[in-house]
Amino acid sequence: MSLDLSYRSEQSELARSVDGLCRRCGTGAGFTDSDPLPEQYWRGLAELGVLGLGTAAGGGGALEIAAAMEQLGAHGAPGPLVGTFTAGALLDPSEMEPISDGSRLASVGQPPLMPWATEAGVFVEIDSSEAWLSRPVGAPEPVDTTAGEPWGRAELERLRPLGDATAAIALGQTAAAAYLAGAAQNLVEIASQYAKDRVQFNRPIATFQAISHPLASCSVSVAASRIMARGAASAIDDGDPDAPAAAARARLSAVASATAAAYQAHQTFGAIGFTIEGPVAHVSLRIRQLSLQPIPQASARARILESLGI
């Protein structure tokens, strides 16, 4: 028995469109130096329909979101992406419309620390498996973050309940897993190519086991995480009751493999890997930032334990 987790033609075409947008906008090192979310890029995602994926108006499902997020991760692209997809599974169409068209940002998480709080126009609070549409009491206090994203500390006032957030959390976990898998795959590929090109002691450093073996291990782990992310997306689209646990497993796997890939890429590149303008740092910073949002990893672990009856 085999399970085909390759993307369909329309999902692959969406991924190619996202890849093309990122290349045109130049979402590499230095992309967010002057603006944490360049308008041309974010509006471009909206025009491609990415920000509305998974909603009744936007169409598509979890696999379309995963396909887009793998490409966005490969480019280390910025934005409240996971929060946008999570919000899309909770908000009414009229509330989601300005988020889908890129004119408003969604901050989704557990206060007081909220992602993109200082720039957001819509706030969704998630507590355990329940969600509320909320608003900040006063201006959020800016917080310095790993990747320079505009997070903030905010006291939220709940406006109305949004109900059970289990399905929305699963969608967000899957989106995060796909992004992390795409980012990690990119780091493994560029580190491997550098190892082939970089010569020390008259030999490419890829011939040294201390370089090649860890990269091979990372490649295997990242491939497994990518499969788990796509499997979770497929489970969500199929209405599988195990989907929330599958999404949690995918998210934890992707966090582990992506952080390991980031570490090994830095080790392979040496000093240049730690420079902000280098080929690695902007992606590894996104990996570390995304690993924290929008729901803490403890929630994913709790979901997995619950599925095991523990």
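That was protein one. Protein two is written in the same sequence-then-structure order:
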Amino acid sequence: MIQPEKIIIADDHPLFRQALLGTLKSKFTETNWLEAQTIAEFEQLLVNHDDSDLVLLDLNIPGAHGFNTLIHVRNHYPHMPVVIVSAHEDQDTITKAMEFGAAGFVPKSTPIDLIFIAIQQVLLGNVWVPEDFQALANDDESSDIAERVASLTQQQYKILMMFAQGMLNKQIAYDLHVSEATIKAHATAIFRKLNVRNRTQAVIAIGHLDISEPNFNQK
């Protein structure tokens, strides 16, 4: 059995995270587990631990915007496999996740022992999806936008996510400890890369990569 050195788990649901870790820590006894509950925490972990062996990512972690976080990680940390762990189980969501570079997709309804098997398969270099998964036709528009998002730098991606949250240039500049002029310069570069004219169009564009609201009635 593979014993990875570091695994990052980015999920804001403490009960699920604790239940998952409670089982996995007993199997991965030599693994250092790094936890993030928001995109900001997750991005900091990626910077500080870019040698991690695996990422377990919830698509709905606060601050995320659809598949953009997955695309960003795969572009900037291509050596780090990502397993999506999600409340979504529909074929379209799984298809898009795999197209955008996920190494595995594990619905949260999956028994934890099976999640362990999925992680082992991915660590061995394989791909893992639910047994009943059937890939759907490719969405050319989403693929084009995904490539554009992947071309953004770390800082540009962070600013784009702040745009998506409705933050003003002044607020973003304060949070990132830079001038408003710097934010405007980044915004111009972001709009050019996404082939849009303003922040509204940018947010609409990445909306094509978004996912539907989760069904909290799922077991």
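Strands lie at 6-10, 32-36, 54-57, 82-86, 104-107. Keep this in mind for the problem set.
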